[in-house]
């Protein structure tokens, strides 16, 4: 039997399969390393090119670097966009800027279709970019969609006002956001009794990675610690 195993290892077909298997493993490993870097660079290059194509037409031809160097400088439109955005933010904080902004919004509010588009885009921008918006407090586990099945969610706040008054529960109610996989920007807003929420030690960022990867990427690449035995 040992002689047969040795002959199998020396068989050319066996060696060829071993070489092909090693090449395949190296290729997949290299793909895992290269794909995120390549995709990130491509997205950055595409975004820079798109912003340049939008902003550079506003620059007079005699002021463009191509008139002096013979080639366009990638990123010039991005710099111009950043400068104009900072300037617009600075003006909007002043009295004159707020006056013009209110005057412009009053005009837009009289346009039926434009009004809906503007208000929707403004609400999205304020939600995503406003510095005053609070982030999720903690990651947690809730039983969803039924008892015995647990799902990762994010605690947003303590339920208050009419919702807290009308939910038939005597204790504290917590508002949690339960994201979907692999797109965590969509999900469900749940109002759960505080005692039914299991707060996790992992950060919100680590929990989001776990949701996006559909459970394939565990925080820090470590296995979950064994649960401690309950006190005797």
Q: Low-confidence segments, ≥5 residues, pLDDT <50? A: none
| Molecular shape | flat
- Name the assembly state: single chain
Count of beta strands: 5
Fraction in helix: 40-55%
Q: What would you report as the Rg, rounded to the nearest angstrom?
A: 28 Å
The average pLDDT score comes to 80
Strands of the widest sheet, in order across it, are 4-3-2-1-5
Order of helices and strands: HHHHHHEEHEEEH
What is the CATH topology of the domain at 138-221?
SH3 type barrels
Number of continuous helical runs? 8
CATH uppermost class of the domain at 138-221 = Mainly Beta
Span of the ends, CA to CA: 56 Å
- Per CATH, the architecture of the domain at 138-221 is Roll
Main sheet? 5 strands, antiparallel
| Beta strand % | 5-15%
What structural category arises from helix and sheet content? alpha+beta
Helix-strand blueprint:
Blueprint: H1 2-10, H2 12-55, H3 66-69, H4 76-93, H5 95-108, H6 112-129, E1 138-143, E2 150-158, H7 161-166, E3 173-179, E4 187-193, E5 198-199, H8 204-212
Antiparallel strand pairs: 1-2, 1-5, 2-3, 3-4
Helix pairs in contact: 2-4, 4-5
């Amino acid at each position: 039997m040992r002689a047969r195993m040795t002959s199998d290892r020396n068989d050319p077909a066996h060696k060829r399969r071993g070489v092909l298997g090693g090449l395949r493993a190296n290729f997949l490993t290299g793909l895992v390393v290269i794909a995120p870097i390549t995709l990130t660079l491509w997205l950055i290059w595409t975004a820079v090119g798109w912003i340049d194509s939008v902003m550079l037409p506003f620059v007079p031809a005699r002021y463009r670097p191509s008139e002096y160097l013979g080639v366009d400088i990638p990123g010039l439109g991005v710099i111009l966009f950043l400068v104009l955005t900072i300037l617009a933010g600075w003006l909007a904080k002043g009295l004159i800027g707020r006056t013009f902004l209110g005057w412009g919004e009053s005009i837009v509010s009289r346009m039926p279709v434009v009004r809906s588009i503007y208000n929707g885009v403004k609400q999205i921008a304020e939600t995503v970019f406003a510095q005053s918006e609070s982030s999720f407090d903690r990651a947690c586990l809730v039983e969803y969609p039924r008892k015995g099945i647990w799902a990762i969610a994010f605690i947003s706040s303590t339920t208050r006002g009419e919702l807290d008054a009308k939910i038939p529960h005597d204790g504290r109610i917590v508002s949690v956001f339960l994201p979907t996989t692999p797109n965590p920007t969509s999900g469900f807003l749940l109002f759960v009794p505080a005692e039914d929420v299991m707060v996790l030690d992992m950060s919100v960022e680590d929990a989001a990675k776990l949701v996006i990867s559909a459970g394939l990427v565990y925080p820090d690449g470590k296995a979950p610690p064994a649960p401690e035995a309950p006190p005797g």
